[in-house]
Amino acid sequence: MAQLPAVRTFVAGVRAIYAREPDMEKRFEIVRPMLKDMLADAKLNRRSHDWPFRNNPARGYVENLLFYEDPDFGFVLNSLMKKPGEVTAVHDHAHTWTLYGVLRGGERVTRYVRKDDGTSDVRAELDRVDDRVVEPGYIDFVRPYEVHVEATGAEPTVGVIFRSHRVGDFWQNYYDVTTGAIRKSRGPVQIPYELR
Ligand SMILES: [Fe+2]
Hints:
The protein is 19% helix and 35% strand. The chain has 3 helices and 12 strands; from the N terminus they run H-H-H-E-E-E-E-E-E-E-E-E-E-E-E. The protein has helices spanning 5-20, 24-39, 42-47, and strands at residues 63-69, 76-82, 90-91, 98-104, 107-114, 126-134, 139-142, 147-152, 157-163, 172-175, 182-185, 189-192. The strands form 3 sheets. The protein has a 6-stranded mixed sheet, with helices on one face. A 3-stranded antiparallel sheet has the order 3-10-11, with no helix packed on it. Helix 1 (5-20) runs antiparallel to helix 2. Fe (ii) ion binds at residues 91, 93, 142, 148. The site of fe (ii) ion has 4 residues, from loops.
């Protein structure tokens, strides 16, 4: 169990919500401001300066620090560390639900919707529907199969992510916006990391 007080409070709060609220959309709406509070925690921010930047997108390597996985409800707490100029694939998170919070840095978040009927596993027609530059404290609520990309600015960007499930052992979709091609990826490698 994570030792940082703000994280302990967050996890306990989320467990209480999961125990009383079965609907995932409602759970995530309630958790959202709790994640916002945790992102404002000075100690968490200080600790994040020790977290490693090890992604190598050119070689297809992306990792998440895995801070916590709930033994009963399956939700997880991750970090995604991106160097200046680093860009994610245009992707979805398959069937999982996500609150992606910016702890440090800043980035450009672009959202897409599928214009096609969504049934093809190999090709998609994407429409760009939102494009914004975000700062620490911003939280992107990513529902199942919602398509998005994040591009880090001049500073490194540290994301703290609340997910309904641990990723890395099922296929996610990576999209080529120009050609419409979809390829399958296991997504970020999960690296257990003790958050003290
Ligand atoms: Fe994502």
